[in-house]
Write a structure and sequence with these properties.
Layout (H helix, E strand, L loop, with lengths): L1 H13 L1 H25 L6 H4 L1 H4 L2 H8 L14 H7 L23 H5 L3 H8 L2 E8 L11 E3 L6 H10 L4 E5 L3 E5 L6 E2 L7 E2 L2 E5 L5 E7 L3 H4 L1 E2 L2 E8 L4 H4 L2 E4 L5 H10 L4 E5 L2 E5 L19 E2 L2 E5 L5 E6 L21 E5 L5 H12 L4 E2 L4 H5 L17 E3 L4 H5 L3 E6 L2 H14 L7 H5 L2 H23 L3 E5 H6 L1 H12 L5 H9 L20 H20 L13
Parallel strand pairs: 17-19, 17-20, 18-19, 20-21
Antiparallel strand pairs: 1-5, 1-8, 2-4, 3-4, 3-8, 6-7, 9-10, 10-16, 11-13, 12-13, 12-16, 14-15
């Protein structure tokens, strides 16, 4: 043995390059094994998490005994599912069967899913009503919004989804590969036989014909329907007292239309376009014109002189649209100039709107938010605090979904964001199987994944809130629904806890930029209720438990719409 070892040493002394190559390969292999074990290893569960009833007093024990013998610190049994949660759903996580679910592209975008078969797509994506074949003219288009072409992969759903995402009411396909969007159809109906060309990316489906459009009316969600092309409808508002200061740019337009006013204000680089009969006003939302007191739309119901179906307001009541111009008054962001003395959590159950709340806080304060985890996709979207260690002290608050005593007590204060569990569970299911703004496929909703997901996550929704109320220090409870309904007031409360003085105009700017890049299109809303009667019964019990815990601490209980159903 010693002789063999001597020969081995002498060989590598003569060939040092081979020795170092061998050493490098050895270290690389070891690193890969270490990384692999880091992603698939089981998380440690503290005693309090494994048995939360034992951690508290008799009342807490009775409160949580309803949840059974699950590991309720995170709401999971000790399975591969728990491992994926602990590691924040990294791209290499494994399922119970040990097979990789990894590659984020497996659940791809909406477009790739649309190619998986027409029958499945029709059941899953039937969010638009076919209204007929229409004449189209290259000199005078039937649909005059945005358009795009794809001569290899065009599908009906791809066109519909793109038009819906931009707020258009109609989507039309032509030549098997062209997609046109519009707010109204400006052409005549023709025979169905004239739309005879197959979609380039979808066999068996018709995508118009030569100068013929297959037109669909999009069934948008209510919150997405009030648009005109890419402009967002803000409502009818009374003329401001000092018009020249509130809306500094004005142009007379005798042949007024929504398009003309929106285009004019966009060219002048203003985010608001206000139509006042034959005058178009442009400006920013300010304390002089905050867009908080909407009037009855009948007061603005004067038809546009150049547009039959749209209202253009009156000299006393303005119809207001938000253009695609970005309001830069609240877009500057940076790290804190000095290390923060407090660690403030932005805590929520997954799917409760944490990413959206981070977006709002960053715009309102001008400082980056951090995270207990690392999500490369969020970093690439502009959340630069994502790379900082959560204890760095350079960020204004830290995103977390943790719910154990040890993790909660690491923070000095917290904003606890609570959302309707029915909505939160669906949002997180969509995120898990479709990405931050994607959607779970029909097969996932109808397969075993959805019932298993609800069984594992629903208890966590309850214990997450209960744990933060019990162990958290200086906890500010914010309901997602209240934040959505009254953003100005609720965001002001959140910023106050963070200890940052913010001007009112900046909060108004945030209101106009509130959606960010993390809002799902309204087109793919499920047309059926995925919750069974048993699921609803179980979730209702959790809602009552959380409601009682909030009221027991002299806080507002859960909103009424949490109850089904």
């Amino acid at each position: 043995m010693a002789k063999l070892w001597f020969k081995f040493q002498r060989y590598f002394r003569r060939k040092p390059v081979r020795f170092f190559t061998f050493l490098a390969l050895y270290l690389t292999a070891g690193s890969l094994v270490f990384l692999h074990s880091g992603f698939v290893g089981q998380p440690a569960v503290s005693g309090n998490q494994a048995n939360p009833a034992a951690a508290g007093g008799p009342a807490e024990g009775a409160e949580l005994s309803f949840l059974g013998d699950m590991h309720l610190g995170r709401g999971f049994r000790d399975t591969g599912e728990a491992s994926s949660i602990a590691r924040r759903y990294g791209p290499w996580f494994k399922g119970k069967d040990g097979n990789e679910r990894a590659k984020l592209g497996d659940y791809g975008g909406a477009w790739s899913r649309a190619l998986k078969g027409r029958v499945v797509r029709e059941k899953e994506e039937e969010r638009a009503k076919y209204i007929g074949c229409y004449l189209d003219d290259t000199q005078s288009r039937a649909l005059r919004g945005v358009s795009f072409f794809d001569y290899k992969k065009m599908t009906i759903f791809r066109c519909q989804d793109n038009c819906a995402e931009r707020g258009y009411l109609y989507a039309g396909l032509e030549f098997g590969a062209e997609c046109y969007c519009g707010h109204k159809i400006q052409a005549t109906n023709v025979s169905e036989a004239e739309c005879d060309m197959e979609c380039k990316g979808e066999r068996g489906s018709v995508c118009g014909g030569a100068n013929r459009l297959s037109v669909y009316r999009l069934q948008l969600a209510q919150e997405s329907a009030r648009r005109y092309g890419s402009a967002v409808f803000r409502g009818c508002f009374r003329r401001p007292d000092n018009l020249s200061l509130a809306l500094p740019v004005t142009a007379a337009m005798l042949n007024m239309s929504v398009d003309k006013c929106v285009d004019f204000c966009t060219e002048k680089e203003y985010p608001l376009a206000a139509l006042a009969g034959t005058a178009c006003h442009c400006g920013f939302p300010t304390t002089r014109f905050p867009l908080h007191d909407r009037e009855d739309e009948q007061l603005c119901a004067q038809k546009c002189s150049a547009e039959e179906f749209e209202s253009c307001g009156t000299p006393s009541y303005f119809i207001v649209y938000q253009t695609q111009v970005q309001d830069n008054r609240c877009m500057d962001r940076r790290f804190l100039p000095g290390k923060s003395k407090e660690l403030i959590a932005l805590a929520s159950f997954p799917g409760a709107g944490n990413t959206w709340a981070r977006h709002l806080i960053e715009l309102a304060t001008g400082f980056y938010t951090g995270s207990y985890y690392f999500d490369g996709s969020l970093y690439n979207k502009g959340f630069k605090g994502e790379r900082d260690h959560w204890r760095s002290g350079r960020t204004i608050c830290i995103k977390t979904h943790e719910s154990g005593q040890k993790e909660i007590e690491a923070f000095d204060a917290a904003i606890l964001l609570i959302r309707n569990p029915y909505k939160a569970l669906m949002a997180e299911f969509n995120r898990k199987y479709g990405g931050h703004i994607g959607f779970a496929a029909h097969a996932h909703w109808k397969g075993k994944e959805w019932p298993e997901f609800v069984r594992n996550y629903a208890p966590w929704w309850a214990t997450h809130t209960l744990d933060w109320l019990k162990f958290g220090k200086k906890v500010l409870v914010v309901h997602f629904e209240d934040l959505k309904q009254d953003l100005f007031v609720q965001l002001g409360r959140m910023v106050s806890l963070l200890g940052v003085a913010v001007r009112e105009d900046r909060l108004l700017c945030v209101e106009s930029q509130k959606d960010g890049n993390f809002k799902r299109s309204g087109l793919r809303k499920l047309e059926y209720d995925p919750y069974t009667a048993d699921m609803q019964k179980t979730i209702s019990a959790y809602i009552k438990m959380v409601d009682a815990a909030l009221k027991g601490r002299n806080l507002t209980g859960v909103p009424d719409d949490y109850y089904p159903r």
